[in-house]
Amino acid sequence: MWGCDEAKKVFEEIGEKNICTWNVLISGYVMNGQGGAALQAFSMMLMEIFKPDEVTFLGVFCACCHQGLVTDRAGLLEEALELIQSTSMEPSLHWSRPVPITVRSHVDWN
């Protein structure tokens, strides 16, 4: 997509990146249906030693949904909770609501 290519160029020209600039890039990819690119950006962000926040996790969660990874990985709720607990984040409406809703839609309660 033309818009995402231009946004990536602008992002690369930013001298001093921070968590906000990374979140905008990740969210922009997600909003344009490019979940794979969002996940690649998240990996690059981690390699550059930026600590994700709740906005980052929401973007990554949405990217996983776009890529169909939530249905493939729906059985890994414990691992997801461990990841969340390994951060020092307090529960937030940004990410705490979508997780239970998604789990509810993929868990066989019988």
From TrEMBL:
Pfam families: PPR_2
Keyword Manganese found: no
A GO molecular-function annotation: RNA binding
PPR repeat segments: 18-52
GO biological process, one term: RNA modification
Taxonomy, superkingdom: Eukaryota
Keywords: Repeat
NCBIfam families linked: PPR
Protein name (record): Pentatricopeptide repeat-containing protein At2g44880-like
Protein species of origin: Cucurbita moschata
